[in-house]
Design brief:
single chain, mainly alpha, about 0% strand, disordered C terminus
Length: about 350
């Protein structure tokens, strides 16, 4: 491929990303405007005065623990043992970047930082990030289906599909076992196919195939039974603690849910949040889903709208606070126009 063709392709990709960002922002603003017209400002302000600050701080403190567990999980998955404190601050900024950048672009911070500032190969960093997402989705998906089966009798819409929920739970377990059993044969088949068909591949596709092969090799390197078992235990713990911390914060807001209802709510919010379709912080889109879910749990409409405003403010405060702690500790100053004072400052 000529340099001119590469530049043309890069320019086209940049325009598509720019268009997608505008569409995400526009859709987020549209959802936000619709929600804003549903909010009674006086009721929302009155609800704010009922928030328990001490219990909110306790909930925030509990929600710091999952960051530590995520950093520990990254440490387990990476071949080079980086300090846990270092990965903790990277995790803080990574989560902050995901909130602040639209379309999931913040995901790029973690692999790019590890490559440029810690010397970790890009494919290994991407591979470890991919494994964490798979662990999160499968673990939370398993908890989600269990929670659905427990609340099906309480929610009329779910009572009619209880047997399907149980079947989905069984299918999830079987799919996980099959994927685990076939992981090495599938990766081996890909390797044989690429080696046998390398001469027949179009030159335009060889770089992509090479990147996929190296990424799969990185994933295969960290899929030993011991490493995955430790990573899975950490994943389960971090989601249990996340549910506990979220429940405490919601309770401080005056909004109480049972354990299983809370599990369904947090799970569905996470599943929707990982889709690369949101504007900054999922503004409008995530809020709309949250309203729909808590209305389904029987919360009155006026209270639901007030809780949505409070949740948005509290989550923004927590995200910004954690993000700025990480930025400060890593020496990152994305808001400064001056040259960075150390080798880390140019990442963002």
């Amino acid at each position: 491929m000529t340099s001119g063709a590469r530049q043309q392709g890069s320019s086209r990709s940049t325009r598509l990303i720019s268009l997608a960002r505008r569409l995400a922002l526009a859709s987020g603003l549209l959802f936000l405007v619709v929600l804003a017209f549903q909010v009674n400002l006086s009721e929302a302000l009155a609800a704010f005065t009922q928030v328990s600050l001490p219990w909110t701080l306790v909930g925030f403190g509990v929600l710091v623990i999952p960051y530590v567990l995520r950093a520990w999980r990254f440490q387990v998955l990476l071949s080079e043992r980086l300090p846990l404190s270092d990965l903790f601050y990277v995790t803080l900024v990574h989560s902050f970047a995901r909130d602040m950048l639209p379309l999931g672009l913040g995901e790029a911070f973690y692999p790019s930082f590890l490559k440029t500032q810690r010397g970790i190969p890009l494919v290994e960093a991407v591979g470890s990030l991919a494994v964490t997402h798979v662990l999160d989705l499968t673990t939370l998906g398993f908890l989600f289906i269990i929670a659905l089966s427990r609340i099906a009798a309480k929610v009329p819409q779910l009572a009619r599909v209880t047997s399907m929920i149980h079947l989905a739970l069984l299918a999830t377990v079987l799919a996980g076992l099959v994927l685990w059993a076939l992981r090495r044969p599938v990766l081996g088949a890909w390797d044989r196919w690429t080696r046998q068909g390398e001469s027949q591949l179009d030159a335009r596709w060889k770089p992509l195939v090479d990147v996929i092969s190296r990424a799969l090799a990185a994933v295969q390197a960290i899929t030993s039974a011991r490493v995955l078992a430790v990573a899975e235990v950490l994943t389960l713990l971090l989601w249990i603690v996340t549910l506990a911390g979220t429940g405490i914060v919601y309770g401080a807001m005056g909004f109480s849910l049972g354990v299983w209802e809370l599990t369904v709510l947090v799970s569905m919010m996470y599943f929707f949040a990982v889709l690369p379709i949101h504007s900054v912080g999922g503004l409008g889109t995530l809020d709309s889903l949250w309203v729909i879910l808590i209305l389904a749990f029987g919360i009155p409409h006026s209270f639901a709208m007030s809780y949505t405003v409070i949740r948005r403010v509290l989550s923004a405060v927590f995200s910004v606070l954690m993000g700025f702690i990480g930025l400060f500790k890593l020496g990152l100053r994305p808001w400064s126009r001056r040259p960075p004072t150390n080798s880390i400052g140019g990442v963002l």
